[in-house]
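hey all, quick one before standup. I had two proteins in the batch that finished overnight and I want to keep them in one place so we stop losing track of which output belongs to which input. First protein below, input sequence then structure tokens straight from the run.
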Amino acid sequence: MIYATLKTLHVLSIIVWIGGMVFAHFFLRPAVAQFEPAVRLRLMHAVLGRFFQAVLAASLLTLATGVWMLGRVAKQVVQSGGSFEMPLAWTFMAVLGVAMVAIFMHIRFVLYKTLDRAVAASEWVAGGTALAQIRNWVSINLALGVLVLLVTLLR
């Protein structure tokens, strides 16, 4: 029961994270592109601030549940007399998951802070530059997330 609960929390966190990136990148961003820079940047700043709070929780929950599930499986194998060897797909998932969290932390604590300062100072060019950098890193994280899903589901 504990493993099923952990796996459910793990998957739900990933859905929030990847689903939010898809929504922001493919639907929200193109829709607000028609707005003047001051309106667009204020709106994106507000939306991303809320989204990044959710992703911070989701990313940490994803890591915690993943590590906990790995630990439980390893412990069960060892207690039954076996030798635990992590499957290649799990290793791939873990490495890319940690990379995604690191990228998100850069987005949230470096790039979003730059956007925050630019919006507060009404510096729209600097804000546009920060938003473009956020978009680029979100694209990379989205690609990594989809790759992890494909490897996990097609293994």
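OK second protein, same deal, sequence then tokens:
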Amino acid sequence: MNYRASTGTSAGRRGAYGIDAPYIPALYGVVGVGLLGWGVVSLAVDGLAPAPWAVLAGCLALAAAGLFLYVTRRGKFLVWEKLLDELALRGDEQILDLGCGRGAVLLAAARRVPDGRAYGVDLWRSQDQSGNHPAVTERNARAEGVADRVELHTADMTQLPFEEGRFDVVISSLAIHNISDPTGRASAIEEAVRVLRPGGRLVIADLRNTRQYGAHLQRLGCSDVTRRGAGARMWWSGPWVPTVVVSATKPS
């Protein structure tokens, strides 16, 4: 029987998951307030020509900040609930999350495997997510009631500390693009495939380089390689920064 946790929706979250790339909405906010202030003051004081476009640009920057915060606080959870549902998990799988951060996706997966286990790896960098630390993820796991089936590792996703064929599912959300060089990103993809069992499934949601991920998975012999947009719920500030989902199956 397929298992789907009744508390798997975003409304049922009990952990604290921070903000992805927190400097970005902060920058949008500062720019938006600055432009609005300039536009309003210049228009009110002496009717300078730049005022209308400054007001418009300020409003757009603030709207982008608001959309970014929506995605990081709610939208990504809704998208990943659907992606995890599509996996139709039995409930006894071994799952690995690459770049798990504070556990937004890791713990949603753990809720679906009461007889399995969910592993998370991360380097715990706060510039990638606010308050990113294993102690925070552990606290979230306890809050979500899944601490007994979650295991965290401080590790580089390009050199995973797991044997070949260990996992039924490997997932990754907005993490692989943080590797700066193409060789490193390719290594992360190779490692993800290496630790999958034959027939295991891989799901990656990311902002950049997804065409390369798909092409590399095909070169590695994976089947059912697909690439699709995650939709407006994961537009990071607007449609010009979409999230793309790449999925594949390791050949049997």
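Flagging for whoever picks this up: The beta strands are 94-98, 117-122, 150-154, 167-173, 196-206, 223-229, 244-249. Residues 124 and 133 are 5 Å apart (CA to CA).
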